[in-house]
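Re: that chain you flagged

S.,

Sorry for the slow reply, it's been a week of failed gels. I finally had a moment to sit down with the sequence you sent. For the record, here it is as I used it:
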Amino acid sequence: MELEVEAAGETVGEAKWAALRELEKQHPGVDKAAVHFQVVTEGERGLLGVGFTPARVIARLSTEAATDAEPVDETDLGSEVRTLVTRIVDGIGVAARIDLVEEDEVITASCTGPDLGMLIGRHGQTIDAVQYLANAIMWRRHPDDRKEVVVDAAGYRERRRATLESLALRSADRALADGEPVELEPMTAVERKVVHVRLKEFEGVETTSEGTEPNRFVVIRPV
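Prediction finished late last night. Pasting the structure tokens below so you have them in one place:
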């Protein structure tokens, strides 16, 4: 058997979000990756922006998947991160389950689902944008009690680590060859730490983080 919920919104993404919220009310901890959507109508704005026809979707979930779902025990901050990341991911049209790992300074939201290629985007641009937005919002909401938010999907962040380490080594070689500091692209605190740790034992250079969040970046200097 299947559970079925129909919902509406100004966009398809908002309609999906509303349907998921209704399913979660009925079955807390529902596996969002197991939810299948049927778009009834994509919605349409009226002439000159006056009035609109709402988007409508039908969300279906097998009773077996709903029965297997278990409520997740997490902090209030973690719950807020889960809700925020879920809404952003749903907004770009990707249905995914969000698994959280909370640590002292970092909350990692790992996404699981069938459309992760769309979520990651070309060269990771989409998932980096999702992570950037999540951090910017959380920093604004909790300036005195904030944690780094890492958004991951299909092991992308581990691959990103390998890329950052390679970039760090090439940039260190360049700093030594040119005798000039090399500034890297803005990174999260977690990514900057990868660069700092990788070059900690690299002779002839030192690394510092400069700028203000969420636009801090690493500078590699010859010494």
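What I noticed first: The two ends are 68 Å apart (CA to CA).

Talk soon,
D.
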